[in-house]
Specification:
Elements lengths: L3 E2 L28 E4 L5 H11 L6 H8 L6 E7 L2 E12 L2 E9 L8 H15 L4 E7 L3 H9 L3 E8 L4 E9 L3
Parallel strand pairs: 5-6
Antiparallel strand pairs: 1-2, 2-3, 3-4, 4-5, 6-8, 7-8
Bound molecules: coenzyme A.
Length: 178
């Protein structure tokens, strides 16, 4: 299986956020992950990362079912030293708009720029495929993602009550053309 490297830019101008003395740090302040497009065969690695982060645990079929009838489904995998450390999944919501459905980074590697790399890779891919907007949503209690989305330049464009999760769902959009 051939991995497809995908372009992603890291903003090196960010201030490093060392949380421990250099000798104790496991990862550099800005980690450099390999971002690859996961095909059917690599989907299981994204599912493994999903199951480290979210509950209930899911099988690959859960994701495949969500992709059915979707146009331009894209699963990105972040790997460091060959180990999957993050995933990012999206597909077309409607012409001109790409939807970021699900994503996450393993807890020990958060705040090292991997989410940013995944998001930038998804955004670059969406732009290359003619999309003008990316939309994403999260629950109000998923504060990490709210901070993340605002920090990466998404606008909050809506909020609605989600009775399944008994929480408000916050809707974000980013214009890829401006
Ligand atoms: C949201 C998530 C994907 C972010 O991934 P990450 O790799 O930690 O994000 P980055 O390191 O690229 O962060 C980029 C910027 O977002 C902001 N940010 C990210 N996490 C933040 C947090 N917990 N608190 C405040 N700001 C945060 C910061 O501005 C950060 O830049 P900085 O570290 O230089 O200050 C990760 O926290 C995660 O997997 N959370 C659990 C799963 C989840 O909630 N998914 C969303 C619903 S699908």
């Amino acid at each position: 299986m051939q991995s497809v490297p995908i372009h992603a830019t890291i903003f090196h101008s960010r201030l490093p956020r060392p949380s421990a003395p250099p000798s104790e740090r496991k990862y550099p302040p800005v980690a450099q992950a390999d971002i690859i497009i996961a095909d059917d065969k690599l989907l299981s690695q994204a599912v493994d990362v999903y199951n480290l982060i979210f509950r209930p645990k899911r099988e690959a079929d859960f994701f495949k079912r969500r992709f059915m009838g979707r146009y331009n489904a894209l699963t990105l995998l972040a790997r460091m030293d060959g180990k999957p450390v993050g995933f990012w999944i999206g597909f077309e919501l409607k012409p001109g708009m790409f939807y970021h459905w699900l994503g996450g980074v393993i807890s020990e590697l958060r705040r090292h720029g991997v989410g940013r790399q995944l998001q930038e890779a998804q955004q670059a891919w969406a732009k290359d495929h003619g999309y003008e907007f990316v939309r994403c949503e999260c629950m109000n209690h998923q504060r990490e993602f709210i901070h993340f989305a605002v920090s990466l330049g998404y606008d909050m464009v809506g909020i609605r009550w989600d009775s399944t999760h008994a929480d408000n769902l916050v809707v974000f959009e980013k214009n890829l053309i401006e």
